[in-house]
């Protein structure tokens, strides 16, 4: 009897109740949670447990990420209109004057990426199809200084006709203390066509894409030695291109049968890692559905890479978070919001679960994931992008 009591006591001592386990596990990053599935079978299905999911969601939203320290929000309404405001005061909107570095009569500048890099924004001049026409400029809104990036002198190695350049990413290489700009030089046969039924994306039937990189420190361009068998999807929405944790991220398209993947470019190693999108993470899609028909949006949500999917005729949005780059199974569906009436598309994310959408009438609405409240802002326009901006009195000219 004493032996039985001793064994029972030992089991109790080694037992962790679900409430305590959930409390501990909910504070871990997704990458760790996915790996802990091998420790206990039930942990593989943690996100199917509504109680755990609720705890994890609250921790995810409330976490004070250093990514947002001393930041404000930028809203690009058109290629000429940019304004700044804080999360605490959506009414206090300040209009910013975009530079006109090329002295154009009708300048058309768009912001690349979802935020600033040490106070610096990368802008690109677009043609009528919203592609880059190879003119880029670095701009610090705080100091109002800018630097025009020289055009790439590189000649195509392909027999295809060079059609356009796609701006892909701008970021900082902390090892070489260098700012880098990545573009895709695209060569095509045939006429371009809209992808996803939206003018936000354009693709071609036959293509070749050479990747080029600009170094601010050397003030020069060079080709990236990568075996590229896919085409980057171009979007005029800045939040579709991210810079997170020393890597630039964008969608790329491998072909009609292969669909879309997330491409992640390491600014130090200059290598590309691809992460497929599981069909199950997309809004209302099963394995028999053509996943490429689903609109998707890429953004930074509280410091993490997030994918938002929805149907064009459905205003319910699914939000999945990427736990580990290169791991298809690490995408985790974390939030479902809506239906939200009269919403056209998501345009970006702010701090602590703030999401911004454009309505069909052009007005901007703010949705808070924590309170589930939606508020219409007194702002109207084309509203292409919400960006995170951190003021810094940095000097753009780093050329040695």
TrEMBL record:
Xref: SUPFAM superfamilies: F-box domain
Superkingdom of the source species: Eukaryota
InterPro entries: F-box-assoc_dom_typ1, F-box-assoc_interact_dom, F-box-like_dom_sf, SCF_F-box_component
The F-box associated beta-propeller type domain, residue ranges: 108-371
PANTHER family on file: BNACNNG10540D PROTEIN, F-BOX PROTEIN CPR30-LIKE
Name of the protein in question: F-box/kelch-repeat protein At3g06240-like
Organism, as annotated: Cicer arietinum
């Amino acid at each position: 009897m004493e032996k039985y009591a001793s064994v029972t006591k030992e089991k109790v001592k080694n037992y962790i109740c679900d409430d305590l386990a959930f409390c501990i596990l909910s504070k871990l990053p997704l990458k760790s949670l996915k790996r802990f599935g091998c420790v206990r079978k039930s942990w593989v299905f943690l996100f199917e447990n509504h109680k755990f999911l609720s705890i994890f969601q609250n921790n995810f939203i409330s976490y004070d990420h250093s990514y947002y320290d001393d930041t404000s929000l930028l809203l690009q309404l058109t290629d000429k209109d940019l304004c700044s405001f804080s999360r605490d005061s959506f009414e206090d909107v300040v209009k910013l004057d975009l530079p006109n570095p090329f002295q154009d009569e009708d300048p058309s500048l768009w912001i690349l990426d979802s935020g600033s890099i040490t106070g610096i924004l990368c802008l690109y001049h677009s043609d009528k199809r919203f592609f880059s026409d190879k003119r880029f400029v670095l701009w610090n809104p705080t100091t109002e200084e800018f630097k025009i990036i020289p055009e790439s002198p590189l000649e195509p190695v392909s027999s295809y006709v060079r059609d356009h350049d796609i701006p892909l990413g701008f970021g900082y290489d902390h090892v070489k203390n260098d700012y880098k700009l990545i573009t895709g030089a695209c060569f095509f046969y045939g006429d371009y066509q809209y992808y996803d039924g939206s003018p936000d994306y354009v693709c071609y039937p036959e293509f070749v894409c050479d990747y080029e990189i600009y170094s601010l420190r050397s003030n020069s361009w060079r080709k990236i030695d990568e075996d590229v068998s896919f085409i980057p999807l171009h979007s005029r929405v800045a939040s579709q291109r991210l810079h997170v944790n020393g890597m630039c991220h964008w969608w790329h398209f491998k072909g009609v049968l292969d669909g879309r993947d997330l491409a992640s470019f390491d600014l130090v190693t200059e290598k590309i890692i691809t992460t497929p999108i599981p069909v199950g993470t997309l809004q209302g899609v099963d394995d028999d559905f053509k996943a490429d028909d689903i609109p998707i949006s890429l953004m930074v949500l509280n410091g993490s890479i997030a994918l938002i999917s929805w149907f064009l005729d459905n205003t319910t949005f699914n939000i999945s978070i990427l736990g580990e780059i290169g791991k298809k199974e690490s995408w985790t569906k974390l939030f479902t919001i809506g239906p939200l009436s009269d919403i056209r598309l998501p345009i970006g994310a702010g701090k602590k679960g703030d999401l911004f959408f454009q309505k069909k009438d052009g007005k901007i609405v703010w949705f808070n994931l924590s309170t589930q409240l939606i508020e219409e802002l007194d702002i109207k326009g084309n509203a292409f992008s919400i960006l995170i901006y951190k003021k810094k009195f940095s000097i753009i000219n780093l050329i040695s």
